[in-house]
Predict the structure.
Amino acid sequence: MSTHDPIKSQQKTFDLKWSLTIQVGLLVLLCLVVASAIITLHSVERAQYDNRSVAEAVGRQLDLQLLRIQSALDVPERFPDADAITQHVLRPGQCVRFEDASGSTKFSNCVGTDSLKAGAPNWFAQALIHWTSVTDETRRPVVQGSNSKGAVIVSSGSMATATQAWQEISPMLALSVGFASILCLLVYFVIARALRPTQIVVSGVEKLARGDLQVRMPSFRLTELNTIGKAFNTLAERLARMMSERSLLARQLVETQELERAHLARDLHDELAQNLSALSAASTSLKVKARKSSPEVLSDAENLAETAQSIMKDMRRVMNNLRPYEIEEIGLTESLNGLIDGFRAKYPSDVSVTRSISKDLDQFKPALSTHIYRIVQEGLNNVFKHARAKHVDVSIKINGGSVLIDIWNDGVKITNYSNQVKTGFGFGLRGIRERTLALGGSASYGANGISDGWVLSVALPAEDTMGTSR
């Protein structure tokens, strides 16, 4: 059953270099935001401190004026008089006023901002006003003895404070953006250089996935990669050992299977075939005698003779399936031609079959010849029973040190393995794969990439891996 998870296969993947570079960039951006917030809060706190300082300075000035009035050194009509100090202590955007005990404003003074300087962006000023208390006022009471004379009130314009904060942040922003860009670029190249050995790891994993069990990882300077390499080599060695053991077991199973088939075919020939021959001869003799002396049993005698002949034909077919003796008698090439002709005659006449069979196949020893015959037999059986093809092409040839078997058909394209098993199609392919594995070859089934249709492709070493050779 397939373990393919479509949800996991749809997950997006990211290049490790870009992923780490982006994370570094985001970290730099976070640091920049935190630094900007700290500078902004510092600007707000400084504005509040300036408000308190101005309120205290003006308040002391008014306290001194009250003391002078009490000492008759000044006249009450001049109270409150703070112009002399406000023009020195106020900064751009600040306002100071004095309210008496009744709440009436006695004097007010404001200093404007420099219109030539670039102000803060509106979004920055609005955010500053929303998240801070930049518009809070500072009040400093003015008393004489136990009597309240009023209060000095100092405030800062929100835009002025935002502009001051922006003028401190903007140079840092420009510098930080340039620095972050250079840093990300350097990080990318440094990470790319550090991760260059991972390409060897990826290549090795891909080769292992394709079945190359001889691939091994070299030693790496990086401890983590070296650990991965050692684990990979251990896994590859274990897989190679397991595959070798599996191949050996498969060879033993196939060899045992062929020996059992040969033994069963021999028993059928030596025992059952002789008895059937005797039964056939006896039924024929009985039919002759009945025709002369007992016509009433002639029909039964004829039926018995036909049954004996039918059993003989079926037994020969079973024996041929168990062990194709004609391979040793007429050679593998003619046996394969006969096999194809038998399938062609057995199944619908509208199926066209073409073939290309090398004559050099007759030089193989019986063991390998039998395996080639079995693979072609099972392949044709799958095609004719399940593929519903209209055209079949069989190609068997020798190329270098390999025997190449290709059985192409234009029938049903079965892509789901579970469906193959349900229809019986997968079991034949499984048997072919196991037999091919036993011989140290390879087998595949799928689109051939050249024309429409599907092809079963098998490659076997020309040397018989079960102890016989060419």
